[in-house]
Amino acid sequence: MRQAREAGCKFADFTGGEPLLHPKLPEFLAAAKKLGFVTSVTTNCLLFSERAGELAGLVDLLHFSIDADSAELHDKIRGGESYNRVINSIDAALANKLYPDLMFTYTEENINAIEGVWKLAREKRLILILDPVFATSGGEDKVSRNAHRQALDFSKKKGVYLNRAHLLLRDMGGNRVRDPLCRAVSSTVVITPDNRLALPCYHHRCVNVGINGDLAGVLRSREREEALSKEGRYSFCEGCHINCYFDPTYQFAGGRFWRESVRSKLRYAVTKYLLYRRPWPIWGFKKPTSLGMPITIDEYGSTPTAGKRS
User: Fold this and answer.
1) Cα dihedral angle (185, 307, 155, 69), rounded to 10 degrees?
2) Nearest C-alpha neighbor of 25 from the set 302, 310, 300
3) 253 versus 46: which is more confidently predicted?
4) Domain 8-279+292-298 carries which CATH code?
5) Above 70 in pLDDT, residue 177?
6) Which segment of 55-64, 85-94, 106-115, 288-297 scores lowest on mean pLDDT?
7) Angle at Cα 78 formed by Cα 98 and Cα 28, nearest 5°?
């Protein structure tokens, strides 16, 4: 992580799978905070209540995955009983001065449950994040225009965040290899559980470069240079719209993508940090050597096949 910080990374996202399965997650978060990273964790909440105290003061952006406003639908989507764990985790987080965003990955199946989840978020003065489900194989959008329209209309309500640039990307059919938008390699450093750099991204990794204590060297390696030259141009990049890589990509895109993304993020920040008065993440003071990239560290578990679901 120290080398990642020196390379210009500012944002450390501990993801999975389920990051709370790793017993040393609090140690990793503490090290990241000491280095000046803004930290992020997304969890399904199965283990959160028991570990909330360990995470106090260590997570800047905490996301709880919630898929419905009832145990019946949420547990059906999740394939097991977890809704009540999410509800209990919200109280455990607030008791430890942690302020989770509720991450709602919307699909055709649960789009009508948005309002109920929003009411829960409003009651607790938390942000509701609407994230359209994505297919890792690219191609046709799995969400209908009508469902996107519902989400877009709902995003106008107080305390609801939707990066509207995601919808623009889907309207144009996703990434196009002839004129690529994706900057997954340029914008993000992805480190796998076995300490390798995943290229060009985690979901479509076709090269895994062992770091062996020299991240700076790996970032200058032939393999990464080749991935940069093919960025957004691999065959599997056609139609891709994976949210977690395009979110940082929009800062490179300019034009409408950049404007819609910035506008959405400003609205999020004003609501969360000014209206709800939640603690503002403070960037570290070390001068970056390049654009502020996020570093994604996968902890125990495979990448989900669709959506930003933990």
Assistant:
1) -150
2) 300
3) 46
4) 3.20.20.70
5) yes
6) 288-297
7) 40
Structure tokens at 98: 């942690």
Q: HEC string of 96-163?
A: CCCCCEEEEEECCCCHHHHHHHHHHHHHHCCCEEEEECCECCCCCCCCCHHHHHHHHHHCCCCCEECC
CB 264 within 8 A of CB 161: yes
Distance of CA 178 to the CA centre of its chain: 27
- pLDDT of residue 85 exceeding 70, the answer is yes
Q: Residue ranges of the domains in the chain?
A: 8-279+292-298
pLDDT digits (tens, 9 = 90+) for 90-111: 999 999 999 999 999 999 999 9
Whether this model's pTM surpasses 0.85: yes
Question: What whole-number distance in Å separates Cα of residue 286 and Cα of residue 151?
Answer: 39
Of 122, 106, 126, give the one whose Cα is nearest residue 114: 106
State CA 123 to chain mean position distance.
24
Q: Tens digit of pLDDT for each residue in 198-255? A: 999 999 999 999 999 999 999 999 999 999 999 999 999 999 999 999 999 998 888 9
DSSP assignments along 255-272, one per residue: HHHHHHHHHHHHHHHIII
CA–CA gap between residue 191 and residue 199 (Å, rounded)? 10
Parallel, antiparallel, or unpaired: how do β-strands 207-210 and 196-199 relate?
A: antiparallel
Return the bridge partners of 197, or none. Answer: 191, 209
